[in-house]
Amino acid sequence: MGRLAGKVALITGAAMGQGEAEARLFANEGAKVVLTDVQEELVQKVADSIIDSGGQALALKHDVSSEQDWQHVIEKTIERFGTLNVLVNNAGIATTSMMENHSIEEWNKVMSINATGVFLGMKYAIPEMRKAGGGSIINISSIAGILGMGTNAYSASKGAVRVLTKAAAMDYAKDNIRVNSVHPGIIVTPMTKDLLEHEETRKGFEAGTPLPRLGKPEDVAYGVLYLASDESSFVTGIELVIDGGYIAR
Q1: Which residues are catalytic?
Q2: Which of 126, 98, 91, 97 is nearest to 112 (CA)?
Q3: pTM
Q4: Is 8-243 a CATH 3.40.50.720 domain?
């Protein structure tokens, strides 16, 4: 307990899945948590649950592809808690379409949320972290951003997050702002529900994972917690892979 005591953390896509697990864990470790999501009612329920358990939380409706929304969310965070120490760019959407089946509209939507959303988050969080004397940014990518896992917008967007993270880590190290990416493997969440409902697909992922199970949101949340905490004060620009050994094969 207390690994994030005194810190203010903003987590996007926090209505369910990995984002919800991160928000709950961060609150349990003493952080004041700002939870954002396009699903306003669901994210408010998570925030209310954290508050009922004795934590401090603020829920905000947030489209991460909107620059205006980012300005509003950062403004409300500072207005409520006075500072910003941690940003987790968790929000994202998936697609399984192959390249020749992609419409330009689908491509643009995935890129705007998964990649542009991360850029905007860093753009507006960094000035506040600089005022605070430093901070930690954790960008949620994927093993699809490292491996060739489908010629589609999802893989491209997660690859963009991977490299953007490294560039930002170099640019802002002088400001004591650390920037790292996390690359989950196959995690059982609402976003992967449709994919994993196919028995053959699920068995294939299970067979390809050296540790004999698929991942849970909490598996990712604990890795994100480490990067958010002062325990990782000498860590920046890394790719933290949390995949049960999937890409080590």
Answers
A1: 154
A2: 91
A3: 0.94
A4: yes
